[in-house]
Structure formats: C-alpha cells, structure tokens
Specification:
By secondary structure, the chain is an alpha/beta fold. The protein folds into four domains: 202 residues, P-loop containing nucleotide triphosphate hydrolases (Rossmann fold), CATH 3.40.50; 155 residues, Rossmann fold (3-Layer(aba) Sandwich), CATH 3.40.50; 53 residues, no CATH class; 117 residues, Alpha-Beta Plaits, CATH 3.30.70.330. It has 22 helices and 20 strands. The strands form four sheets. A seven-stranded parallel sheet has the order 3-4-2-5-6-1-7, sandwiched between helices. α2 runs parallel beside α3, α3 packs across α4 and α6 runs parallel beside α8. The longest helix has 22 residues. It is globular, with a radius of gyration of 27 Å. The relative contact order is 0.10. Its main location: cytoplasm.
Length: 604
C-alpha cells in the first residue's frame, strides 16, 4: 500500500494541527504518514510495518489529536511503548503537535517515576496517556487509570515489546480496554506472535508496509558531534573555525531559532543570514543570491525554507538541531554533495538524542562517524596556519616597498629589534581574531564532552550509559527561583521543556515545580556549575527570560508560610516514596523497561 501526497493540507487534520506542522517545519507527509493518517482519521484499525525514524509517531499522533474531544478530560488515547525514553519522546511529540489546542493534556507514565505524582496527575485528567506496559498495568489494577472512554489504542514498536518480554502484559492491557476501540499497531518487523495479536485484537485492519530506502549519496561525508545544549553554540563556533568550508547551511527547527542563531554568529564575525518561512519571497531570494555570489558564507534555515535550495558553493550542512525524522535528515544533507561534488554533513546530537542517531544510521544504512570537538590548541594551530598563508600571499603578490621603509625607520631608531617590531605588527593584525585563544579559567568543554557511543544497542547497556552521563549527584536537589509565573501564563510543561530541551538538564534531574503569581520555583541539582547556571538564567519561556538563581533562606521561609499551596508538578524520575503503600497485587511482579528482571514468559 503506497500513497503519495504533496502537502499535509490534503489531509483533513484541521487548522490548529496544520499550523503546528508548519511551525515545526513539516511540509510533505512521509510515506508512512500519507498511508496511515486517512484510515486512522476514518476510524479504521492499522498494522504499520516501518522502521523507527520514518515518521510513524506523527502518523498516529496527528489523527489521534484530530479526533480528541478537549472538553472531556478522561483518557481517550493510550499509547504503549517499550521504554521510558520512547514514552517521553512520544509524549513530547503529542505536545508539540497540539501546541495550538488549548487545554490539551498528555501524560507519560513509566517505571522509576514517583507513583504518588502519577496518581495525582491522573486524577487531574489527561486526554492522552503514553506509558510502558508494566506501569500502565499498575494503574489499571489500582483503578487510577480508567479506560472506559478510550477511543484509540496504539502499540508502538511492538516487536521491541516482544523482545523485552512485555507481550503478555500487552495482551492483558488489550483485554482491559473497550472492545469498540480503534487499534493501531506499529512494528519494524512482524514476527508471528505480533501477527497473532494483530489478528486476535484488531478488526479488519489495513496493512501498511514501508521500507526505508538509502537515499544519501556516497559523495557526502557524514559525522556526528555529541554535545550538550548549553555548549552547542561554542561547539558550532569551533567547528566553523576548523572545517575547510566554502559555504554552509545550518539547520534549526524553528523560525525564531534562525534569527537568534544568525544574530549570534554574526556577532562572532561570520557572514551569515537567516532563511525561514516567515520571510517574503523577495527577501528569501535575496539571501540565496547573496550566498551564491559570496556575500554570505552561512545560512541558518528551517527545513521548509531550504527545500529546493541548490547552491554550488555549499560544501557543508550542519544539523544544529537534530531533525524529527530520518527523511528530513536526508533532505537536509542533500543540499551538499550535488552533481558529484564532495560535501560534509555534521549532526549535533545531545545525550537524549542517541536514539534518533541510531534511527538515522539504520534508515540510511550508513555509519555516521564521531567528530571530536576541536580543542583550543587545534583552533590556535588552524589560525596560525591561515595567518601564515595570508602573510605568504602578501609577500608574493603585493608591492611592499613603502612598508619596508616604515619598518626600516622603526628599526633605525634603535629602540626595538626587527623581530619585536614584526611581533607587534602581527599582534595588531590579529587583534580581532587572536592566534592564541585565552584560557578562561575553566576546563575546556571540548575535552570534557561525553564519550562517543559504542556500537551496542543502548537498552543492552542502559544503566552503564546513564551512569556515564550522570553529571550531578543523585538526590541532591536545591530550589531555584525563576522570574516567570502564572501571570506570564506559563505551565510546568513549559518550564520542563525549556530546561530539558534548551538547557540540557535531563528530566531525571528536574524535581518539583511550584507556580506562583509572578515567579516560580524549581528543584534542580545542587551542584550546577557556573556556566550552566548562566546558560539557564538566559533561557526564555513564552518570551520571558528565566533569570534563574538559587532561592534565599528568607524566600524559602516565605514560600512555606503561604496559605495557598501552589500547583506542583515534579518531572524527574524520582523513586517512589517509601511510605506509599501499594495495594496487594493479583499478579507476579513485572519488569518495566529494564527496571527489574522480567518474569518467565511462555514461549511462542
């Protein structure tokens, strides 16, 4: 089954969803989206066989959102995912697509997070629940998750749930959902146990099979650079220094980011322009023309704005923000290496985005090699080399008689030696671009970057990977004050999103958030370095700067005396409170995303 659509506007998704897709840069539906969205909108069951990274999250999230009744706060959509990482990723996708749907709530549910917190949030209500099988079963047994109003059930990466031993749990959950529900099953492969479940629980399903084809070209050298969000700009600046680049495109996700990043790079001496969908056609053409004739060396662009861009000067494509799916990645790096020319594609990957890197490698069938961040010494060597080339070129081509007389007169004074005069002139010539980078007193983040990933699957070594990435002492949280609150219309999700996505603070290090009228407090690691503190203080939420700082003892006491307790939403993966008494279980203990060894499973 193959369907081709030229625009999302051909789908009956509604104006709010179409506007959100435009904001995130989606233009043309991928094959899995074009094939699955129409039948899911019509209420049909679906079996989708597609690799991770083909856009299948949007394939089921968009039709689910189109059918949501926002006036009913009971769970209408349940998504089962094999791991907590995928559950969080899918939840964030729902939130991203529903940005223009006021009142929409999605809740991730997974092991390792406080059960008390989850019970409180479920009591408030959620339109969509995304969770791992074990914890979903816990809530169904407790009756804290009631599925009487469920419209759609999605099984995401069903073959992974089989491999991890969750297939019995999945069947148990299916047996506790309404018989008239809509069901969508997605799997990279279709082993017999998964096919048996599909035939038993799905009603006359439509089958969609998408094969990811290799569409990258051999003339493009692909590299990835692992870097945390606060260090992205510095990493980009160093890479621009060290790479032998004629011209390049830097891809970001949002229109606002194109302007912000272009402004920052321009302040650092780069000839750069922005390219986004909000610009008039005349202005976009002017930027492209400047890039072609060499007036600009860099363009910061969104996916939509760069579609169809063909400039022979482009030698580098830098994915400053990782794309949402593999097809977007292929489209991006296709801006270089055209017509047999050589090109380089560099992908920035934060610790949370390792899964997407794996998906890109699987979809393109090409290994992306790690690119170490250039050190201060490497950048200094590069600048010295370029300076030497410039001096050699001037010595060979320019008429220097007048300047020789000037230098000779300086030497004739007898005050300075000739090499001292030459050193002073070199210093003057490179004052705006020093050949030797100053050591700012802190450690070089390029040398402190996370180690490149191994070739082993993340879930086989998850605890070791998490341990290696742990930058803060577990459990040692302190309260910080931020200058946004209810008057600025912010929500805990806004704050968590800024801290996690822009500030590089993993969700497990974010504790309780309290919203007040004109400020809020948030629990973060007590040992935040000064550079991270500075980066977080400059973050924006709903166009307001956070101005993050530690809470003083007097402020802490004042908050505790407040008569009205504010709404709080912890977002970290806290351990359940020891005093919380779980009701007696009628089934043996289960594993949830690798938290405990799985119980014995029957063989298929």
């Amino acid at each position: 089954m193959t369907t081709t659509l030229s625009s999302f506007k051909e789908l009956d998704l509604g104006a709010p969803l179409l506007a959100a897709l435009d904001d995130v840069g989606y233009e043309t539906p991928s094959p899995i989206q074009a094939a699955c969205i129409p039948p899911l909108l019509a209420g049909a069951d679906i079996i989708g066989e597609a690799q991770t990274g083909t856009g299948k999250t949007a394939a089921f999230a968009l039709p689910c959102l189109a059918r949501i009744d926002l006036s009913d706060n009971r769970p209408q959509v349940l998504v089962l995912a094999p791991t907590r990482e995928l559950a969080i990723q899918v939840s964030e996708a729902f939130q991203r697509y529903a940005r223009n749907m006021p009142g929409f709530n999605v809740m991730p549910v997974y092991g390792g997070q406080s059960m008390v917190v989850q019970l409180r949030q479920l009591k408030r209500g959620a339109h969509v629940v995304v969770g791992t099988p074990g914890r979903i079963m816990d809530h169904i047994e407790r009756k804290s998750l009631v599925l009487d109003n469920l419209k759609t059930l999605v099984l995401d990466e069903a073959d992974e749930m089989l491999r991890m031993g969750f297939i019995d749990d999945v069947e148990w959950i299916l047996g506790h959902t309404p018989a008239e529900r809509q069901t969508a099953l997605f799997s990279a492969t279709m082993p017999e146990p998964i096919r048996r479940i599909a035939h038993r629980y799905l009603r006359d399903p439509q089958e969609v099979k998408i094969k990811a084809a290799t569409t990258t070209v051999s003339t493009i050298t692909q590299k990835f650079c692992q870097v945390s969000v606060p260090h992205k700009l510095d990493a980009l600046t160093r890479i621009l220094e060290i790479e032998d680049m004629d011209a390049g495109i830097i891809f970001v996700r949002t229109k606002v980011a194109t302007e912000e990043l272009a402004t920052r790079l321009e302040a650092r001496g780069h000839a750069v322009g922005a390219l986004n969908g909000d610009m008039t056609q005349q202005l976009r053409e002017r930027v492209v023309e400047q890039l072609k004739r060499g007036a600009l060396d860099l363009v910061v662009a969104t996916d939509v704005a760069a579609r169809g861009l063909d400039v022979s000067r482009i030698t580098h494509v830098i994915n400053y923000d990782i794309p949402y799916d593999t097809e977007a990645y292929v489209h991006r790096i296709g801006r270089t290496g055209r017509a047999g020319r050589l090109g380089t594609a560099i992908l920035f990957v934060t610790p949370r985005e390792q899964r997407m890197l794996k998906s890109i490698e699987r979809a393109t069938r090409q290994k992306i090699e790690p690119l170490p961040l250039p050190s201060r010494e490497a950048i200094a060597d590069r600048r010295i080399s370029l300076f030497r080339e410039q001096v050699e070129a001037v010595l060979q081509s320019d008429d220097l008689d007048f300047f020789r007389e000037v230098v000779a007169s300086l030497e004739a004074d007898g005050t300075h030696e000739l090499h001292d005069i030459a050193a002073a002139l070199a210093h003057m010539a490179t004052r705006d671009r020093p050949l030797q980078l100053p050591n700012e007193g802190g450690r070089d983040f390029a040398n402190a970057a996370p180690s490149p990933r191994t070739d082993r699957e993340p879930r086989e070594n998850r605890e070791k990977i998490l341990e290696r990435r742990r930058d803060y002492a577990d459990g040692k949280l302190s309260r910080y004050r931020i200058a946004v609150g209810k008057h600025q219309l912010v929500t805990p999700k806004d704050i968590v999103g800024a801290l996690a996505n822009e500030g590089g603070i993993e969700s497990r290090f974010i504790g309780q958030i309290n919203l007040y009228e004109d400020y809020s407090t948030v629990e973060l690691p007590a040992d935040l370095p000064n550079d991270v503190m500075g980066a977080l203080a400059r973050l924006r939420v709903r166009q307001h700067v956070l101005h993050l700082r530690p809470v003083t003892p007097d402020e802490n006491a004042h908050d505790e005396r407040r008569a009205r307790t504010p709404r709080s939403t912890p977002s970290s993966e806290r351990k359940p409170r020891k005093s919380f008494d779980k009701p007696a279980r009628s089934k043996p203990a289960r594993a949830d995303s690798g938290d405990r060894p799985p119980r014995a499973r029957k063989k298929f």
